[in-house]
Design a protein that fits this description.
Layout (H helix, E strand, L loop, with lengths): L2 H14 L6 E5 L3 E6 L4 E7 L6 H14 L3 E7 L7 H7 L3 E2 L3 E7 L14 E5 L5 H12 L4 H13 L4 E8 L2 E9 L6 E9 L8 H15 L4 E6 L4 H6 L3 E11 L4
Parallel strand pairs: 3-4, 10-11
Antiparallel strand pairs: 1-2, 2-3, 4-12, 5-12, 6-11, 6-12, 7-8, 8-9, 9-10
């Protein structure tokens, strides 16, 4: 499939029709909101704007999320209109994060290293008590507080164990890398998240082994496509593994006025 065809599938499946546990999808004529029912942080993952409604829709979304006291992330994709939407949102007071690349792997007729037996010590974590150590690795790599994320992943694992799979990679019985994968209901896609390795253990194939473990699970569960939001660090690695870049995305965050 061409990158354009993959992008169209991604938009339809992972943006317009995305459904996640604990999140209420709400479509307006111009946007798709993902409203978190467990905490006051939500998302806007799809927009269809025109020169005539642009400013009004932005104002309407701010008013809506302020009205329910939710912070929200407007995820802007490189093929969204207008091309300067990130700059327009920033001018309205949104905080912008670093751009990421969206890549998709078509797992039909999978071959190569991702289909080979995994020789690294990769373990799937099924006990909610094991979530925090996985996120501690992420916190060390990215130097950030992941306490809220720990609670979210624990809730998903306890209440929707078929939706999420969590993995740790070990060297000499030491947890050195972690990652997880989500299985969107009624979807051809699964999605990769995390995938962070302590600096001293990079260059040993640990990241690739974590990708392979999740790819093989996704194939075994009947998924056709795998998607990842990749940083500049991981993008070259997954491209070498066969993932195809389809666009970029930029998170734009609105903090409610308390």
């Amino acid at each position: 499939m061409t990158p354009e065809e993959l992008r169209d599938l991604y938009d339809h499946d992972q943006r317009i029709n995305l459904r996640e546990p604990g999140v209420r999808a709400e479509a307006t004529p111009f946007t798709v909101r993902q409203i978190n029912e467990n905490e006051p942080d939500s998302f806007l993952i799809y927009s269809k704007l025109t020169p005539y409604n642009l400013d009004a829709v932005i104002s309407d979304e701010i008013t809506f999320f302020e009205g329910i006291s939710h912070n929200f992330e407007w995820k802007v994709f490189s093929h969204d209109y207008p091309p300067d939407l990130v700059e327009r949102l920033a001018a309205r007071g949104f905080q912008t994060d670093e751009q990421e690349t969206i890549l998709v792997l078509d797992m039909a007729d999978l071959s190569g290293v991702l289909a080979q037996p995994i020789t690294h010590d990769i373990r799937r974590v099924t006990d909610p008590a094991g979530v925090k150590p996985l996120l501690d690795v992420q916190a060390e790599v990215w130097n950030e507080d992941n306490s809220g994320h720990v609670e979210r992943l624990m809730w998903e694992l306890e209440n929707h164990p078929d939706y999420i799979s969590l993995y740790g990679a070990y060297v000499d019985d030491k947890l050195v890398s972690s990652a997880w994968m989500r299985f969107t209901p009624d979807s051809q896609f699964a999605s990769l998240w995390g995938g962070s390795t302590l600096e001293a253990y990079r260059g040993r194939g640990v990241y690739t082994a974590l990708v392979a473990a999740r790819v093989q699970e996704a194939v075994g569960r009947g998924r056709r496509f795998l998607t990842i939001d990749a940083s500049d660090m991981s993008r070259p690695i997954v491209q070498k593994l066969g993932f195809v870049p389809i666009c970029t995305s930029t998170p734009c965050r609105w903090q409610i006025k308390r």
